[in-house]
Fold these 4 entries.
Entry 1:
Amino acid sequence: MTGSGSCAEPPLRPYHCGDLPALLALYANAVRSQCAAYYSPQQVQAWSAYAQQQEAVAAAIDRGTTLVSPVAQDDGRLAAFGVLDPGDRLALLYCDAPWSRQGRASALLAALSAHAQAQGVAALRTEASQLSRPLLLRHGWQIEAEETVLFAAERFTRWRMIKTLEPCPST
């Protein structure tokens, strides 16, 4: 599932505190560039503006397990990132449009799931957007419930989802 015809798996690495400005920009750009087909202009504006609340987003990134996907190996530019916060909840998963549909979100999901599994987590949970719901379904997540939430004075439909993890084999 690569957009460029390459079979190489996208690189992943742990988050470093110097990545924060790039992650905040990536978050806002991903929402603005990919969500217009699913949300109203007002919803897109409200959602993308959340990245400007640096302390709130940074808290989840710093507190959780955060992996990033650089554009290329040893490249300072970031294409995607994912966060588990707490350890059983997929809190953030964003891929910037130029690098979407290249397997980056899938690689992040697999790595974060493997990390949670190694920590003894039995199941992951999340609240999925209209954009991320199909991706999660393809990766074995199941919908628990649809819900409507008020965020920045805008109503959003999202889905509470769960994915059961197999226990790690004992060594």
Note: The helical segments are 20-34, 41-49, 54-63, 104-118, 133-138.
Entry 2:
Amino acid sequence: MEIQLQITSRNIHLSDAIRSEIQKKAEKLDKFYDRIIRCRVVVESPHRHHHQGKLYNVNIDMTIPGGELVVKRKAHEDLYVAIRDSFNAARRKLEDFARRQRGDVKQHEEMPHARISSLFPELGYGFLTTRDNHEIYFHENSILNRKFDNLTLGMEVRFVEEEGEKGPQASTVTIL
């Protein structure tokens, strides 16, 4: 970490053992992502509830290049469990951030676009023409968000192409 760890407590006194545990967990975060600029840990004990014992919240706010990651977990009766759960969540957020930064996150391809070029309503099918002028067959059952009878020539659609018995066909057609 480039900046010291900041530990704050609200409505609770933190022993040296608790502070040491938080310090140890924060140092482990640095192994998952070594460019943490700032890490602020807030340990609080909300007011006592009538039906439950004392609860502890551990919130973590990390500043990293290009953003800020905040971890807020559900309160827990055991302070050590609350610390462990919050730092585990922080580690997962850092790992996800690092994966996105490296480009390891899988990007889904956008569905191709086409226009409806011919319709045969009495037979329940039609043809799409792609931007590179390929014709693709589609059946009325492949239309997702409209009724086949409401389609018109020239409507723009997105589609999923698959190989049919007689050539390419659209298995899913979404009207834009």
Note: The first strand starts at residue 5 and ends at 10.
Entry 3:
Amino acid sequence: MATDQWEIRLVRPEDNVVLAQVLREVLIEMKVPFDGTALSDPEIDTMYDAYQYVNADYWVVCYRNRILGGAGIAPLRNGPDGYCELQKMYFLPKARGKGLGSQMMHKCLQQAKSFGFTDCYLETIPNMMHAQKLYQKWGFEYIEHPLGNTGHCSCPVWMVKSLRDDT
């Protein structure tokens, strides 16, 4: 893999259409239910706009300028004080197994800390085991109940990570 052909950058307005296609493709591949998941989020078609508020950013992973995935960080809606949410972290097969998930995780968590968040929350589905292994590697721990109001009632796996002692 030639590293100069891979790029992680902030989402741009012109990315919306392609990014929506990529995210839907991954979600369908993973057999994610439509209702109660990111697949039914109206913001999936306007990801740039969805992250244009305080303490929120979304990055895309590109190979030769082609978007192959992304991930974002934003305040956890109606969650405990200091909590953010890792959101919509999905990659097409070509981007998997290359360490990009770890690079993206580092970028998201560092940005979350710089925004002043103390904890990071995420939701996923049971069959996304590779993602869960990555989350565990980065210090996320399973919890027994959802936090906040994400609207993702079909995501029954909840994890949280403290950002207080990270370096």
Note: The chain has one domain: 3-162.
Entry 4:
Amino acid sequence: MRVHRVDYAQNARRNMVFTQLKANGVMDKLILNVFEKIPREHFIPIVALSIAYGDGPIYCDISGRYLFAPQILGLFLQHLNLMPDDKVLVIGGNYGYTATVLFEMGCTAYIAESHPILVAKCREKLKKYNPTIHSGPLKMGLSKNGPYKAILVEIGLNSVPECVIDQLEEGGRVAICITTGEEDSAKACVFEKKANGLHEVFTIDTNMPTCTEFNESESFTF
């Protein structure tokens, strides 16, 4: 009698794709395939393994740091309109999941990360991609490799930082969670940079706590 091994993580990824991404309008086949391929449980703290494929943000052991909810990251990527070899900056690398998704989509991803523990996690998790990981204040971004086609800010902020605007190419897009002032409440937004400023192209309600690492006076507020 042949016994079939059940891959619970694989089943969980498949369920995540159908119930969280497709159900919320993510239809790009490349994005869906990448989400189903990458073991999300490898990019979160051990204590959070039971919610690796949950529908909310996951705390990354550092104050103010959370991994995007799957459907939010999927919607962000769909509205960023990325192509292979596009240069993308991730501000707030966390454990490297978002950058891994970008690499698997064929993009060239760069990471700006301020916390030594998270820098080490990114280097460990992403070593096969040989990524550029800049260790320094998040509010500085990573200008030397810009401008970027897209920037993902994986922290909750109450405004779009000036470094994001400055390091984005014209016509490029930024994905960011803008906190509303209510507890953990935020708007997941995608903006496009044009000659006369940033223009909103997508927004949806989400949950993301505010991160306090940026100097609020140096940000562009909506």
Note: The mean pLDDT is 91.
